[in-house]
UniProtKB/TrEMBL annotation:
Catalyzes the condensation of (S)-aspartate-beta-semialdehyde [(S)-ASA] and pyruvate to 4-hydroxy-tetrahydrodipicolinate (HTPA). InterPro entries: Aldolase_TIM, DapA, DapA-like, Schiff_base-form_aldolases_AS. CDD domains: DHDPS (cd00950). This is 4-hydroxy-tetrahydrodipicolinate synthase. It catalyses: L-aspartate 4-semialdehyde + pyruvate = (2S,4S)-4-hydroxy-2,3,4,5-tetrahydrodipicolinate + H2O + H(+). GO terms for biological process: diaminopimelate biosynthetic process; lysine biosynthetic process via diaminopimelate.
């Protein structure tokens, strides 16, 4: 029996610890000719480990999964697991608007040793609530890998409603939810209604601090790509209930959290990382370079956060 054939408990990494804290929604470095820059990808993973990031989420929205073919998608999952080498958990983006495709990606992630999968609500085809419940149940019943639901209606149009989440939380193998609605009222409702063993992760940097103080297990973060140590400090303070430290740290990141969404994610964050020398500014169409009129605003937000005297 291989290590990846061992059953896993929901919400747990392969090393036995709960996945929590600062989880970077990692970008996918690319080259100007449309290729994937694997050297930069590996270097980013090492940097996040060094900076204290608690887990790495790959090939999700920020990783431009929509423009990757199946072979590239799988390759990036495998490389992330290999590069992380057990130092931090790896959450593999395995969602799709086809249940069969989501199962195929999830099974591959299980096979190569990912700690969990992150499965976005099916997009474009606008499934009903019953269709989404069946979609996720089918994945969980087919693949022995903890599955984290990912609700981001601003991207998918379809919205996984409260009652559907509560039903899915009872399905063995479904291990948590990333709530990227940015709606604190929705998040706190779920935190009250879900079992304590079913983690909720913020997927919205601007509201993550409040949601973690209310009980969320962590933040799957875009901003962590730029300031991983600062986001780690914020998540640690929030999970410890240190409201004063959270307020100071969150204030230091507030402008940057907004600036990284002046255009569609991951356009601004890749522009910043290119300025930082960590990758080339390259995307795949239909995404393209950050409009120059936003350059000053975004970079000033980065400098303001980096020059802040709060501990990082």
């Amino acid at each position: 029996m291989h290590a990846y054939d061992l059953p896993r408990q929901a919400g747990m990494s392969r090393s036995g610890g709960a996945i929590a804290g600062s989880i970077v929604a990692l970008v996918t470095p690319m080259t100007p000719d449309g290729g994937i820059d694997l050297d930069a990808y590996r270097a980013l993973i090492d940097w996040h480990v060094e900076q204290g990031t608690d887990a790495i989420s790959v090939v999700g929205t920020t990783g431009e999964s929509a423009t990757l073919d199946m072979e590239e998608h799988c390759h990036l999952i495998r490389i992330a697991v290999e590069q992380a080498a057990g130092r931090v958990p790896v959450i593999a983006g395995t969602g799709g608007n086809s249940t069969a495709e989501a199962i195929e990606l999830s099974e591959y992630a299980r096979h190569v040793g990912a700690d969990a999968s992150l499965s976005v609500v099916p997009y474009y085809n606008k499934p009903t609530q019953e269709g989404m419940i069946r979609h996720y149940r089918k994945i969980a019943e087919t693949v022995d890998l903890p599955l984290i639901l990912y609700n981001v209606p601003g991207r998918t149009v379809a919205d996984l409603e409260h009652d559907s989440v509560l039903k899915l939380a009872q399905v063995p193998g479904i291990a948590g939810i990333k709530d990227a609605t940015g709606n604190i009222a929705r998040g706190t409702f779920l935190l009250r209604a879900l079992p304590a063993s079913f983690p909720l992760y913020s997927g919205d940097d601007a509201t993550a601090a409040a949601l973690m103080l209310a009980g969320a297990a962590g933040n799957i973060s875009v901003t962590a790509n730029v300031l991983p140590a600062r986001m780690k400090a914020l998540c640690d303070a929030a999970r410890a209930g240190d409201a004063a430290a959270v307020r100071r740290l969150d204030d230091s990141l507030a402008w940057l959290n907004r600036a990284l969404f002046v255009e569609s994610n991951p356009i601004p964050v890749k522009w910043v990382l290119a300025r930082m020398g960590r990758l080339q500014e390259a995307y795949r169409l239909p995404l393209c370079e950050l409009d120059p009129r936003h350059h000053a605003q975004v970079w000033q937000a980065v400098l303001a956060a980096r020059e802040d005297l709060l501990p990082v």
